[in-house]
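Design job #97: recover the sequence.
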């Protein structure tokens, strides 16, 4: 094997013939044929995340603050050691004029390198610490059904509580003083219109003494200010934390991470957002402050069922007492259409119901892996009005399990405010108090739809007031 020219240029020793060559996914080379730069994920031969997790679990920490800080410290320190030589080389290459930037995934001991060229790919391919270079993949956003759009000013800036809010019995919880006070909900989606009149009061970045740091992150591009060119994320945030009768928890606070920068969601960005929610950073990904982590993360996205790639993040979230709420998917009512990560054990998955409490026609159905009952519950998802990304007073109506999930995220906020406790306890409150929906008489996974729980609506439609 000849030494790569780049190795000589940057003063690095020629690698031994005995060193194995890293596996490079063919898609990376295809990407480089179409563009000079691409994004890659580096995995490491000596990643050994198990030993880092074992050290963390051996401490038997009990407070959330200690768990958040120590989990990050141990896993990141371990990643820093394993990745040290590769990151040093990448820095030398950058100093020499390359354009790439690096995003560390401390939970899984991996590195994302964005805007990397072919020469640097070959340099990494021949590094003895590198196991593989993985190409970026994209999960298409679930297709929601668009309804009408309207403007708050047409209603003198005052509207009634939306049907989904009434359906989950949120106003009764509000009457008891349960509005999500003190609870932070993270949202991984297309972004946010943080200036919207229904979202601005509850955006944590608008609190006194706050700014966008630790409250907003956009892995692709590191945009310093929240934005949303799609509207999916803005709509979802409105349903869990919006004021004006839009959100289940109208006094909660929200933060956001753009995991879906285009028509699809990059697996790299979703991973980065998962790390951000476990330990928030400033808008350029530095100066982490784990105490700023939310108690809940709404995830109105998903891909092919049975996928486990997001499970390490779900584990880190659960360790830190973060409820992971996911949409079930919009692939229809046929059996085995449920999406991932929502079908995984540590995810709390949500199907969609209509205003007549029937299962929405496109709401995906389980079971999950191992014949597990999925979704866990159902919530309003058809013709849901919430905030629009097009104007600060705009509203739009969308249908999908994407719209159902934030109703549940808001309900978890009410439970945490009322009861504190663990994620397991909060989820148990939602399932034990859920209401039976109108049965369609179907069977999936050997479980009739009229049985509770079942693979169509899980334990039933949520009742936020009863749960809290």
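Job complete. Output follows.
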């Amino acid at each position: 094997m000849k030494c790569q020219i780049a190795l000589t240029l940057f003063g690095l020793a020629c690698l031994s013939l005995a060193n194995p060559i890293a596996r490079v996914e063919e898609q990376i080379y295809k990407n480089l044929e179409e563009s000079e730069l691409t994004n890659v994920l580096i995995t490491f031969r000596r990643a050994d995340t198990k030993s880092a997790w074992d050290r963390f679990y051996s401490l038997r920490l009990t407070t959330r603050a200690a768990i958040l800080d120590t989990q990050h410290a141990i896993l990141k320190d371990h990643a820093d050691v394993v990745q040290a030589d590769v990151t040093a080389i990448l820095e030398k290459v950058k100093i020499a004029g390359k354009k790439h930037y690096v995003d560390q995934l401390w939970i899984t001991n991996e590195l994302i390198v964005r805007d990397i060229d072919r020469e640097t790919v070959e340099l990494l391919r021949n590094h003895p610490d590198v196991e593989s270079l993985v190409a970026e993949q994209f999960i298409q956003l679930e297709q929601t059904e668009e309804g009408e759009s309207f403007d708050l000013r047409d209603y003198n800036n005052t509207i009634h509580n939306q049907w989904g809010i009434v359906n989950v019995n949120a106003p009764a919880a509000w009457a008891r003083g349960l509005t999500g006070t003190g609870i932070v909900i993270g949202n991984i989606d297309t972004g946010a219109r943080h200036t919207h009149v229904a979202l601005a009061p509850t955006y944590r970045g608008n609190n006194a003494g706050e700014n966008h740091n630790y409250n907003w992150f956009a892995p692709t591009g590191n945009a310093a200010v929240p934005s949303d060119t799609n509207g999916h994320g803005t709509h979802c945030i409105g349903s869990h934390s919006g004021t004006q009768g839009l959100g289940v928890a109208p006094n909660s606070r929200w933060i956001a991470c753009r995991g879906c920068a285009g028509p699809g969601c990059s697996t790299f960005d979703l991973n980065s957002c998962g790390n951000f929610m476990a330990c928030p950073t400033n808008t350029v990904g530095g100066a982490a402050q784990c105490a700023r982590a939310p108690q809940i993360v709404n995830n109105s996205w998903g891909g092919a069922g049975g996928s486990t790639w997001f499970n390490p993040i779900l584990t880190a979230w659960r360790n830190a007492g973060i409820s992971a709420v996911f949409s079930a998917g919009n692939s229809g009512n046929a059996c085995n259409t449920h999406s991932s990560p929502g079908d995984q054990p540590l995810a709390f998955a949500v199907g969609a119901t209509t205003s007549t409490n029937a299962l929405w026609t496109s709401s995906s159905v389980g079971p999950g892996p191992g014949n597990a009952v999925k979704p866990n519950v159902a919530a309003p998802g058809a013709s849901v009005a919430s905030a629009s990304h097009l104007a600060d007073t705009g509203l739009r109506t969308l249908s999908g399990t994407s719209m159902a999930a934030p109703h549940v995220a808001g309900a978890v906020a009410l439970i945490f405010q009322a009861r504190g406790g663990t994620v397991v306890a909060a989820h148990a409150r939602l399932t034990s108090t859920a209401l039976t929906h109108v049965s369609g008489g179907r069977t999936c996974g050997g479980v009739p739809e009229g049985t509770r729980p079942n693979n169509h609506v899980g334990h039933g439609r949520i009742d936020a007031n009863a749960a809290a």
